[in-house]
Amino acid sequence: MNVSAPELASLASPTADRPEWIWRNGTLSRWEQAQIHVNAVGHASTAAIFEGIKAYRADDGRLLLFRLDEHLRRLFDSARICRLDLPYSLADLRTGVFDLLRGNGYDQDAYVRPWAFPAGLIREQMVPAGSVCEVVIDSWPFRSRPDVTRGCRAGVSSWQRVSDAAMPPRVKAFSNYHNGRLAMMEARENGHDWPILLNERHKVSEGPGACVALVRHGTVTTPSLTSGVLESITRDTVLRLLDESGEPVVEREVDRSELYLADELFFLGTAWEILPITSIDGLPVGQGRPGPVTRRLADAYARLVRGRSDRHTDWLTEVPR
Fold this sequence. Notes:
D-amino Acid Aminotransferase, Chain A, domain 1, 321 residues, 28% strand, alpha+beta, 7 helices, globular
C-alpha cells in the first residue's frame, strides 16, 4: 500500500487548532496579533529563509528536539549566503524555541519552523545586501510515520534541479522550493506521488523536500553534496549511523539508470523521515515493497529521535519544563 501524496503532505500540516503563541522578534506574541502589512510581503518573500525542526515526545513524556543546534547553524549559513542580517544569536533562537514550545503547552510531537525575512516595506525587487530581518518561530503538531511497511511511487521529473550557479540549493530558502513544487505537480499529473529531480549534469539530485538514497548489492549510495542537494541534516544522520555500524555507504554522482536497478530506494528528510520508494517511473523497486536496509534505518532513526537509543544522545535537546 502506497502513501498517497495528500496523506504524506499532512506530515507537516496542522492537525489541531492553531497555537496560542508565535515567537516574533524576541518575544511571544498571540497568534492573531502576529501580523504585518500586506505590502510588506512581496519582494521580501524572495529572500526569506527558514528551517524545519522536529520535537519528538519521548516515552517518559519529555519533548526532545532533534539536532536543534545543527538546524539553527544552517539557518545562519543560509543568511550568510543570502547576505541577510539576523539580529539574534543562535542562543537567542534556541531560547525562543524553548519559550514557544512551553508557551503552546505541547505534550506531543511538534514541528518547529524558524524563518527570517527582510524587515519593513521592501519595494525593490533586489532586496539589498545586509538587510536586517524579522525573525519568526512558529510551530504545529505533526504526525510521525514510523510504519515503513508502506511506500510511495516516485517519478523522474522533466524539471531540472536548480544549480548552485543560479540559486544555491544548499540555502534553505522559500524561493528554492518553487522548483520542487513544479516537479511535484508534474509527478502527480503523471500518476506518481513524488518526483526525483536531476541536476544540470543529468545526475540524480533530490526530491522536492528530501534527499534520496539507493541500495544496491548491500551498499547505500546517495548523491554527493555537489549534486544540487540541500546539506540535509537527516542525510548526515543516516550516513553517520551507517558508517558507525560498519555498513558500506558511498557518496557520489548517481546516474538516472541506477534508480531502475536499485534493490531499494528511499527519501530522507526532517519532515519525511525515512520514506521508502516502492516504484520509480512505473517500475517496481526491488520486490516492490520496502526493503530490509530501509526498514532497519527507519527503525534506528525512530529509536534515536525518541531517546530510545544510547547512540548520539548529544543530538537530542530536551525542552526545559
